[in-house]
Amino acid sequence: MGRRGFTILAGLLAIFGITAAVFYFVSQPKTLRLAVGPLGSEDARMAAGFVQGLNRERSSIRLRLVLTEGSEESAKGLDEGKADLAIVRPDIALPAQGDTALITRRSFPFIITTKESAIGRIADLRGRRIGVVRNPAGNRTLLQRVLEQYEVALDDVTFVALAPDEIVPAAKERRIDAFFSINAVSALTNNEALNRLRAAWGEDPVLIPIREAEAIKARFRAIETGEIVRGALGGDPPRPSENLPTISITSRLMAAQSLDDNVVGEVVKSLLALRLTLAAELPAIQGLEAPSTDKDAPLSVHSGAAAFIDGEQQTFFERYGDWFYLGVMGLSLLGTGAAGLLGRESGARRRRAMAGLDELLALLPAIRASDRAADLADFANQADTILTRVLSDYARGDLDGSGLAAYRLVMDQVGRAVAERQRLLAEA
User: Fold this and answer.
1) Of 30, 98, 319, 328, which residue is least crowded by CB atoms under 10 Å?
2) How far apart are the first and last CA of the chain?
3) SS3 (DSSP) at 227
C-alpha cells in the first residue's frame, strides 16, 4: 500500500473515530437540576422517587435535587438559572422563566366541619375559627381568596395555623369550628389525610362545597375547577353522598424555557413511564398527568412537553438528519478535494522521481563521444548517484514498479555504453 492508500485509510479511521465520539457523547445521560422543597414534603418525596426511578431504569435523563424552603424559592431558583426544573404550586409561586412540563399532583381543597357546628355554607363561617395547615403559607392565602369570593371579610373569621399532627387534637378540643383541607382529596386519594379527618370530625362530617369555583378560576389563573367525587372520603353510605363542586390546585414540574425541547420531551416521557414501575413504592406517582396543550390553557406548557404529548416529538434522525446529510456532503467534497490534492502531489513526486531518467539518457551520447577514461569514470559516478536517488524515491513510494523497470533498462544501457567505450579506448 502506497502513501496515498495510507493517507486515505487514516482519513477513514479519523471519520469513524469522530462519528463514534459524537454518538458516545449524545448517548451519555444528561443530568438536570431539580429544585424542590421543603424536605419531607409531598413534593420532595415525589422528586426523590423520580431520582431513584430514573437511576434504576438507566434513563438517558438523570436528576440532581436542589433542596429549597418551598415553592417560592424553587421558582426563584429556576428564574435565576440555579435549576433546570422545579416543582412548584402555581397558586403560591409561578416562575417567570419556566413553563409546565408535567402536573405532579392535583388536589381538591374543601372545608370540613361537624353537623353540630351548624355551618352549611361558606357564608356561615363568619365569626368562626378556621383551621389551616400553616406550611406552606400559601394555604392561608388560598383560603382568603375563597372567602373573598363569598364576601367574608378576613376580620370576620379567626385563622388557626396548625401542623398536620395538631388537626385531630384541635378539632376534638373544639379549638376550631371548621378545617380547610388542601391535600386530603387528590387525583390519588391520600389515605393518611383522610384517616386524620375522620378521626377529627367523626364518621359523618359535613363537607362544604365551593360552588363558585368558576368565578374564582376566572380571577386567579393558577386555580382551576374540580369536583370531589361521591365517596371520595369512603364509608357506607358514601362520604360525600354526591359529587361536590370545588376548586382544584396543582403541583407542577416546571421546566426552564431555555431548556432544549427534546430534553424536556425526554423528561416527560421518562417520568410518565415511572408510573408503572414505582406504583408499589410511591403510590402518589400515579397522580402524574400530562398538562393540557390547548392554546387557551391558563398556564403555558413547555414546547418540548407539548411536542411529546401531542405526538410531534422528533426522532434522533429527524432532529439531526439534515446535519448528517450536510456532513456527508461536506465529507464527500472534502474527500474529493483531498483526493485531488493527493493526486496532484503524487503526480508531482513521480515527475521529480522520473527526472533522473532524462539525466541518464543525456549521459549516453556523452559517454559514446568521450575519449578519456577519466570522463568515463565520472559518467559512471553520476549514474551511481542517480541510482541512489532512484532507490530512495522508490523506498518512499514516489516511484512505482514500472518506473523502476524503466530506470533498470536505461541503467543497463549506460553501463554497457561505459564498458564498450572503455574497451575501445583500451584497444586504441
Assistant:
1) 328
2) 52
3) strand
